Fold this protein.
Amino acid sequence: MLNKQFEQGLAYYRCNNYSQALHLLLPLIQVIDDRDDRDDRDDRDDRDDRDVLYIIAQSFRRIGEYSKSECFFKKLISKYSHPAFHCAYAGLLNDIGKVDNAISYFNKALNIDSEYFDAHYNKALTLMSNNRFEEAILSFNFSRLIFSEHTGAIIGLGQSYVATGRVTDAITLYEKCINKEESALVMYQLGKLYLSRDDYDKAGYFLKLCAERYPENRIFNFAYIDFLQLQPNTEIALQCYRKLLKYYPLDVEIHERLFNMLWNCHSNNIFVEYEAAYKNNPLDVLTLEYAYKLIKVDNLILAKNVLEHYTFYMLNDRAFVMFAHVLRELGEFERSLVVLDKLTIDKLNIDAMYERVITLLCLKDYSQALVCAGLMYSQPQPTQSSIALYATVLRISNREEYNDIFNYKDFIGVFDLLSEFNPDLHAQLTIDVFNLHSDNKYPINQSLRVGSQTKGELFNLEVKSICDFKERVRYVIERFISSMPDVLFQRFFRSKPVSIDFSGSWSVNLGEFGFHLNHYHNSGVFSACYYLTTSGVTNDGNGWLQFGQPELSRWLKLEPEFVVKPEAGKLVIFPSYMWHGTTPKSNDGERMTIAFDILPKYVPEHHIV
């Protein structure tokens, strides 16, 4: 009976059903304790006992009950001297952040058996994950003396080489190990290394080889497609995405990547893959991504049809919120509220409440809109969207409190940095940032209309002019924030910040008659923009920065309240919750900016209240 119970527990453990394994194996601990008091124990008893203890310890580890796991590991290794048990315990210690203790137990495992591969390998992984790369190199090399063709050890060693600046050693290592049958992961690493060195011929060779050998592997194919886009070779990249969709027809990320590529190359059939997936699987979650993009391109009638069918069968809060949004923008205000009433009410759904407030404003029910917006604003850490919406309701309701939140005089800083910067820095920065604008179409989910936006975090790039600008502008921002009255510190930070961090950074280059829809930023407390080129800005208002005009609904129209004329070298700082946008720039000339979001540094409570 006990043997059967153990076998069932072991089966559950091997299927990753750790809770059920514990349910069956924990009662056996009493049997083990009873056997310890007897003199007739045999080798089989010892083997069974240690297996039970090991599986219990590992099961507790897998479900995150680390203290219980540690208790059973200590009991296990106190009774049985085996490298596997010490190695597993070391893994637990690393999980809970006791890195030095973990290394000690890996070493104890190696004292028992100096050629125990798992101890060398997992010790190396632990060292690498804690940025102790030189030590990791030694351990990976020891592990390879035992198992020279282990793919994980090869890749880990190569990555440690790269982290210590020994890229050539990593390439040499990988090239020696790519002839094995299972060497695709090594080839993938090799291709990425050659790409980092701008050796496009070799990078393309290895990345293409990985993708062709393993056509179902998303990671290999994504890497090869990213390489093709650098060339650029859009047609082959599109073919690769479509081949992947044959294996994963409902994969959200593949559809997203393919759609963005079609969008950026101005395709007339940007929805063809979404439409096919929707036709075959109208109730899959991918339908919501399809509907979201239909809304972004203002195809509300089709979005309504898609969401109406989906919400009829599926109870999904996001679908209800989008459906309510579409109904409101089509003028069906009352029905929009009915749809929002279908959402679960066990907790405050900020997105749903946001849509409800806007619909109430469309219905001119200002008192109820103020109640709902106030509920969002009164949360312990209100989002910037909640603050922007609450302020808008105050403005429409003619409440004086509005001016306390949208205080343009005290909350907006405008600085001429050309007088503080070396003019050569501005000139070089303009050239370097312009060269980063690779896409020729605006991102579909951003406020930009007509123009391009850089990818990734601009301030993370190792470009000298950008790094110099980042440090110089940091000083200006910290000086502005430190000069604010105490009452404003309480509003924005609750206490005076020591310094600031950047929570997002990018550049925008407006195209012909390009502009920004009015918006706010959710990832900062303050936001800022710096003007690189402004020849597309005119004295009569083209390309100007405007504040205070909300972008809530086509049925709600309010005018901007404060404007700033952009000039090259000018920096504008403002609270992230403030509605801001731009007027369209002129047909002639340029308007390129650097924009970024700002958070206080080393201040626990940085949220606006």
